[in-house]
What we know:
- This protein is α/β, with parallel strands linked by helices.
- It has helices at residues 42-50, 70-83, 96-108, 123-127, 138-151, 171-181, 205-213, 228-238, 248-251, 255-263, 273-289, 296-306, 311-317, 322-330, and strands at residues 18-19, 25-26, 30-32, 56-63, 87-93, 113-118, 156-162, 185-189, 218-222, 242-245.
- It is 41% helix and 14% strand.
- The strands form two sheets. Strands 3-10-9-8-7-6-5-4 form an eight-stranded parallel β-sheet, covered by helices on one side. It has a two-stranded antiparallel sheet with strand order 1-2.
- Helix 11 (273-289) packs antiparallel against helix 14 (322-330).
Amino acid sequence: MAIPTPIPALRHPFLEPLPLAGGRALPNRILPGPMEGITTGAFGAVLSRAGYVRCWVTPFLRLTTGVPRPARLREHLLPYLEAGLPFVVQVMGIHTELLCAAAVRLAELGAIGIDLNCACPSRTVLANGAGGARLRHPEWIATALRALRQAVPACGLSVKLRSGLLDPAEMADILPAVAAAAPDFVTLHFRTAAEAYARVPGGWQRLARARELLPGILLLGCGDVLTAADALRLRAETGVDGVAAARGLLRNPRLLLDIEDACAGRTPRPLGRCHSLARLREMALLALESGGNRPGFVLEVARTMLGERDPLFQDLSRCRTLLQTADRLAAEVPSKETHDPQSCS
Ligand SMILES: Cc1cc2nc3c(=O)[nH]c(=O)nc-3n(C[C@H](O)[C@H](O)[C@H](O)COP(=O)(O)O)c2cc1C
């Protein structure tokens, strides 16, 4: 009797490389969502150093009246250049020629891809017609993507979308236009720009609909992926090809690796409290080293990580300086930890 050949286990699609134009690729389809004011600076640096991310998508670079000079662009990119990981630079604006001119300079400075922001829900941005307001003009998005492709043909090209400006039904116009311009991938945050960060029951169904409206284009789902289990459920419920997780990184800086573990069938190892606090302390020390003094962003990370009711968060919220914050955190972390991560029990 013929012995049946074992069927090789299928690799989870999120673990596949994410191919970009020019023969390049991102290591997999589990990306950090950009967070303006957070992923740049000490937060991003600590995640890079700890090896919790494999690549970065920068927060938006807003182009309003001109293209910043190379020195200024380099300054914008410095945290990512220093991290030494592949990075995609997000640009935002309404003038295609400015976006293209900036893309050329950004590619020269090392960007592996350019991501067009058509998603930002900030009132100021919307009032200027940029970010999420671009969703009102699907043909503009397609034209801008084609122009960017021509400007930087050897660079990856992607677009960050929401499910609409006001109504997810807008996807029926937006997504076919985007698909026709053939970006390398699309990231879709399921909320509309008007919904900002509101709770939207059943919101992921919009991602399943988007998957249907974008045939042949890699689609990364975004929104409310806070744990590795959420990422597996996202794939099962929507069929998206990958995930971009943002706020979940504040709760668990190791989230992307946990998602990789879960996709590979390994048990995720979320950072315990001690390790998380050690990372938070590193952020405070790094920010201090770079000349910062106010504990603002460390407190924001602590708020999400610990919750407002946590007595440690309440203590931290009374710290007036980064040094006080770092000292208070040091009391929670074995002194060896910074050098020996295993020392956290
Ligand atoms: C503080 C903050 C800043 C953000 N900045 C950007 C940005 O610059 N560009 C962008 O495309 N999305 C930005 N986002 C949106 C996130 O990348 C992500 O799409 C959104 O938070 C939903 O995903 P999540 O539920 O995993 O957080 C930001 C989100 C936060 C909370």
